[in-house]
């Protein structure tokens, strides 16, 4: 392909990507973007191919950088997703017996908890 065709493809891809992402509701934007970072597995594969077929140092450096950035994006994307999903999990409610027990037990003056430590005087 010649340079002009590649530029046209790049501009069209950028336009389509912007239009698709701008239609996503704000509540889904962060999880969607963090998962799309996993697409950087393709970047890692490309970096491995570049390194495998390279004949000079510049190609090795570019491939290594592509693999490093792809790895960072994949790990970061899944970390953000895990954190976002953790915000939506319900915390377990304590059983009624535990609530009643915590109300009736006196608090320890030093620690502020109702648990007995068993032997420090």
Topology:
Layout: H1 3-22, H2 26-36, H3 41-53, H4 57-87, H5 96-104
Helix pairs in contact: 2-4, 3-4
Provide the descriptors you would attach to this structure in a database record.
single chain; 121 residues; 5 helices; elongated
What shape does the CA trace take? elongated
Poorly predicted regions: none
Distance between the termini: 82 Å
Oligomeric state of the chains? single chain
Largest sheet: none
The computed structural class is: mainly alpha
Total E-strand runs: 0
Q: On the 0-100 scale, what is the average pLDDT?
A: 76
Give Rg in angstroms.
Answer: 27 Å
Tally the helices: what do you get?
Answer: 5
Fraction in beta strands: under 5%
Can you give the helix content as a percent range? 55-70%
**Secondary-structure element order, N to C:** HHHHH
